[in-house]
Amino acid sequence: QKEVEQDPGPLSVPEGAIVSLNCTYSNSAFQYFMWYRQYSRKGPELLMYTYSSGNKEDGRFTAQVDKSSKYISLFIRDSQPSDSATYLCAMSESNFGNEKLTFGTGTRLTIIP
Amino acid sequence: EAQVTQNPRYLITVTGKKLTVTCSQNMNHEYMSWYRQDPGLGLRQIYYSMNVEVTDKGDVPEGYKVSRKEKRNFPLILESPSPNQTSLYFCASSTQPRQGNGYTFGSGTRLTVV
After folding, report:
1. B59 to chain A: which residues are within 8 Å by CB?
2. Which chain A residue is nearest to residue B92, measuring alpha carbons?
3. Which terminal Cβ of chain B has fewer Cβ within 10 Å, N or C?
């Protein structure tokens, strides 16, 4: 079983819809949770960061972490065609040393104009 | 512009022919890492470096070498490439990526070993 599970999609929604992306994980030591966005033929770029449980909002994006359920979500409101990309969840433990991120496999999202 | 630069972007090589993928960052980041991205497996860490002359293995280090002689450069070396190393490779750098700064990724190197 993978440490981080993410539905690969693909997911297609009409412009303006609310998008929900999710990951589950099995490692209870994960403390730092991130969402990266990856456009075709590009490297991933950091979108959202959350430490421990809770919500974080940044413009049209909201990240949620529920450590009791080992479940994280990313919501995109008023989705735009420019949001079409692959979204990767990533997590890290709190131990000092290797700053390794464990990634989900990514969900490919297409926003239809 | 702050960036991580990888070269080459695309590479086709034959089994056993040594190759080096270069990575350079201009942000004075201490931490650098190499990942490979494969369908269905996601991004997996190959090697990382916490600073100059400090490197260590990640999850999938077999068949790879790295060096960190200067802070800005972190080359990935495949001494004897094999077809199972065909993949998309990303170099990344950060200052404390877990503290919310995240990684800055390069644009990737698509390697094909035939």
Report:
1. 100
2. A43
3. N
SS (H, E, C) B51-90: ECCEEEECCCCCCCEECCCCCCECCEEECCCCHHHCEEEE
Residue B97 and residue A45: Cβ atoms within 8 Å?
no
User: Which residues pair with residue B35 across a beta bridge?
Assistant: B45, B90
Cα–Cα separations (whole angstroms), residue A102 to A75, A77, B51, B82, B98: 21, 26, 21, 25, 11
Please answer yes or no on whether B42 and A104 come within 8 Å at the CB atom. Answer: yes
- Mean pLDDT value of segment A92-110: 82
Spatial separation of the C-alpha atoms in residues B68 and B55, rounded to whole Å? 7
Of B43, B97, B98, the CB nearest to A103: B43
Question: CA neighbours within 13 Å on the CB side: how many for B71?
Answer: 8
Spell out the per-residue pLDDT of chain B, length 114, in tens. 889 999 999 999 999 999 999 999 999 998 999 999 998 899 999 999 988 999 999 999 999 999 999 999 999 999 999 999 999 999 999 886 556 667 899 999 999 999
- Provide CB contacts within 8 A for A59, sequence distance 6+: none
Give me B46's structure tokens: 């190959």
